[in-house]
From TrEMBL:
Keyword Signal: no
Intracellular or extracellular location(s): Cell membrane
Residues spanning the membrane: 35-53, 60-76, 82-99, 111-130, 150-169, 181-200, 220-241, 338-357, 363-383, 390-407, 445-465, 493-513, 534-558
Name of the molecule in the record: MBOAT family O-acyltransferase
Membrane topology classification: Multi-pass membrane protein
Organism: Flavobacterium artemisiae
Keywords, ordered alphabetically: Acyltransferase, Cell membrane, Membrane, Transferase, Transmembrane, Transmembrane helix
């Protein structure tokens, strides 16, 4: 007969005795042990939180306050004392939003909007770009400014963009402000998507706050399916590939063969997808359990048939945000602006300087610079609507450049954004010459090769995204460029990394599964009894615990 004592003995045998020091560690910030969705600590805390949440479901402000407190604790466990930065930012933005809404004079409203944007970007700029600007200044002008010891709060880019969207939508009169600060803080600090998205728009989320909390059986099924899938993607696939192969190769690419560099590039492509989409799936699932619907953030992006299609499928909440609040703000496809022309001009000027400064060592950088400028110019000079296409392409390029810079302060991120901006411009002119027929879908071969080409371009761009700096990215590319056909060597490498390559294959097969197959799996899961679903979730967490490598790995997008 099972007794409390036998259960206690089993727990101690498998997990060890719990000490007061461990209990303290559950609630005190530790930079080496952040509170992640894929940890047993989060599962335990969330179960306790959710038990109480169930009793508060019929309340309003009490429930909001309870979630806010847990959200602030969640952020404290991720960034320590910097949770106060979130509070400070929210107080300022809430106050300015109230002033903008009540102000009737357009000029004054715009002034307060500019103040809000400047304050948000200055905050983001200090924590994320201060050292980058110092290094750039020192390199360009032989300066000797010392670097700052700046801590980067987790997810600062995400909640800054979310807060900015709230104020901009009020300025554009698309929404009305929340009734009070509690409601606004709930929107900004909502823990499922606080540190890595999806970036939630106020006009989509705020109406849900005022609706009656209604959790259906379908919502629970969807939530558990997403959480289980997200856990497997993040911990079983992404973490293992990262620690056991990808990180090693990208840290010292010249210590590995051309084939290993190539496979590491393919490995990172599936790693970042499983990592980020896994987090998004878990965030959406957890939010569903709380009664809130967050937007989908990924739609099998490597099935894209063009780079334009890719950005409709990858990090959808960010690409939508950039389109609505940056691309349209600088003119979109209607008109040019100073900012729209400035950033591409600065980039191409810098690219040309890089090519000229490297001329004595190699002519290749200069050829790359000249070819890039020529290709971008041809993308609008060959267009039948030359003026409009010029404006559109410059604004697109600016959006992607700044999107790259949003991801990180480094030349490699700027190049990553520029490559995507250039590809979008080229695709636009391609579609002008070879328009797709609306009443006829492309044949299989055309679609197949479109997916292959788009996928490999994206993988190439990921090399810059993953490399620690621009020079390392060039080393990886140069190494891959020296690839020769050596089947015996390849076989030896594959056998040496069979577990890694097996998980990479599993990740890609999962990603490319037909939607009908995925829907079928979901249908079977929906029909499974709730108890079995809970057991499956517990089993997945056990797998996460059992296969944990070198501790819990932070989500890639936490650094952004």
């Amino acid at each position: 007969m099972t007794t409390i004592e036998s259960i206690n003995n089993w727990f101690i045998e498998n997990f060890g005795a719990i000490t007061m020091e461990q209990v303290e560690g559950w609630f005190v910030y530790n930079p080496d042990e952040k509170l992640l969705f894929n940890t047993g600590l989060f599962l335990g805390l969330f179960l306790v939180f959710y038990f109480v949440y169930g009793f508060l479901r019929k309340t309003f402000y009490l429930r909001l306050t309870y979630v806010i407190l847990f959200s602030l604790f969640f952020y404290y466990k991720s960034s320590g004392i910097y949770f106060l930065l979130l509070l400070l930012s929210s107080v300022v933005d809430y106050g300015l939003s109230q002033i903008i809404y009540k102000e009737s004079r357009d000029g004054v409203k715009k002034l307060y909007l500019v103040i809000s944007v400047i304050l948000n970007l200055a905050l983001l700029g200090y924590f994320k770009y201060m050292n980058f600007l110092i290094v750039t200044f020192n390199d360009m002008f032989n300066g000797n400014f010392a670097l700052h010891n700046v801590f980067l709060p987790v997810g600062i880019s995400f909640y800054t963009f979310q807060s900015m969207s709230y104020i901009i939508e009020i300025y554009r009169e698309e929404i009305k402000p929340t009734k009070n600060y509690i409601e606004y803080l709930f929107f900004v600090s909502f823990f499922p998507q606080l540190v890595a998205g999806p970036i939630v728009r106020a006009k989509d989320f705020l109406p849900q706050i005022y609706q009656k909390l209604n959790l259906t059986k379908e919502d629970v099924n969807n939530a558990l399916f997403l959480i289980i899938g997200g856990l497997i993607k993040k911990t079983v696939i992404s973490n293992y590939i990262s620690v056991n192969f990808v990180d090693r190769v990208f840290d010292t690419p010249m210590s590995y063969t051309s084939f290993e560099n190539l496979m590491a590039s393919y490995g990172y492509a599936i790693q970042i997808y499983c990592d980020f989409s896994g987090y998004s799936d878990m965030a959406i699932g957890i939010a569903l359990l709380l009664g809130f619907k967050l937007p989908a953030n990924f739609r099998t992006p490597y099935k894209s048939t063009s780079i334009t299609d890719f950005w409709r499928r990858w990090h959808i909440s960010l690409s939508t945000w950039l389109k609505d609040f940056l691309y349209i703000s600088i003119g979109g496809n209607r008109s040019g602006s100073f900012a729209g022309y400035l950033f591409p001009s600065l980039f191409f000027f810098g690219l040309l300087l890089w090519g000229m400064s490297s001329y004595n060592e190699s002519i290749i950088p200069l050829i790359i610079a000249g070819s890039s400028i020529l290709l971008f110019c041809l993308s609008f000079l060959l267009s039948s609507k030359r003026k409009q296409t010029l404006v559109t392409n410059f604004n697109l390029f600016t959006t992607m450049l700044l999107g790259g810079l949003w991801h990180g302060a480094g030349a490699q991120f700027i190049v990553w954004g520029a490559l995507h901006g250039l590809a979008l411009a080229v695709h636009k002119i391609f579609m002008e010459f070879f328009p797709s027929k609306k009443d006829k879908s492309p044949n299989f071969l055309w679609r197949f090769f479109s997916i292959i080409i788009t996928f490999h371009f994206v993988v190439f761009c990921w090399i810059f995204f993953r490399a620690r700096d621009f020079e390392t990215a060039l080393q990886v590319i140069n190494n891959i460029g020296q690839l020769t056909f050596e089947p015996e060597l390849w076989k030896t490498i594959v056998l040496g990394y069979k577990n890694v390559f097996g998980l990479m294959l599993f990740g890609y097969v999962w990603h490319f599964l037909p939607e009908t197959f995925t829907n079928g799996m979901k249908s079977v899961f929906d029909k499974t009894p709730l108890l079995i679903k809970a057991i499956i979730l517990g089993f997945v967490y056990w797998i996460v615990y059992a296969t944990a490598v070198a501790g819990s790995q932070p989500f890639i997008y936490f650094q952004f």
